């Protein structure tokens, strides 16, 4: 049992006056209430801290030891309260942002520079994982803010839409046979573990245009780079593909994505989290500059 700061404050006054009646009067509570507070302290400490006699009270050896530490305990508690309130009312502290590496490369460079310069007491740690895992980490409070694709709704989550994206087939500027979806040599570069990729592969198979050759990787950046260097046809989100000046294949199957920022509902009143979320949302009104 941890003693309350109120009981410790009362104890300091009792130790100063060595009289329960006068201490109660000074504090502004009844003597029975003060007596109960001292009894709670003795229960918390596990031994007697006061010796009662006709003229008042005196401190036991344990009481004198408690007196040495009580002021420090109260000062530490004041510091803890101050820092706790600061985390709610001020933009400061350490926060984890979770997102897929590809999402991070597109969004975060446009957000974090201004944010971290504006708030020097803000510390950001990035954690990269799949959108599904990031969502789970926010629910269990191991990540503070997530930028995820197609988040699953959950009663503990606050979800705000950022943007739309579209996954489809892309090619570079070359004219190789491996870049021609209708060629027997067509090569498809993709991450087969992504739900979106699986959906597109099923559509290609149903249409009879699924290439027999696959080059697989779990990095969208590698897919984009290989596609840009004419190594085959890439299955990519439009935002990544456009940054590499890739061209969409006409009439290719696609999959629509929704990119969202989310956080745990218990963090609604944390000013820093709200500021970070709002900074991320502002990217919608400030699109990246087109490549010259």
TrEMBL record:
Domain HTH lysR-type: 3-60
GO molecular function list: DNA binding; DNA-binding transcription factor activity
PROSITE patterns documented for this protein: HTH_LYSR
Pfam families: HTH_1 (PF00126), LysR_substrate (PF03466)
UniProt keyword annotation of Transcription regulation present: yes
Signal peptide: none
Keyword set, alphabetical order: DNA-binding, Transcription, Transcription regulation
Recorded GO CC terms: cytosol
Domain of life where this protein originates: Bacteria
Family: Belongs to the LysR transcriptional regulatory family.
Name of the molecule in the record: HTH-type transcriptional regulator CynR
Organism the protein comes from: Aquicella siphonis
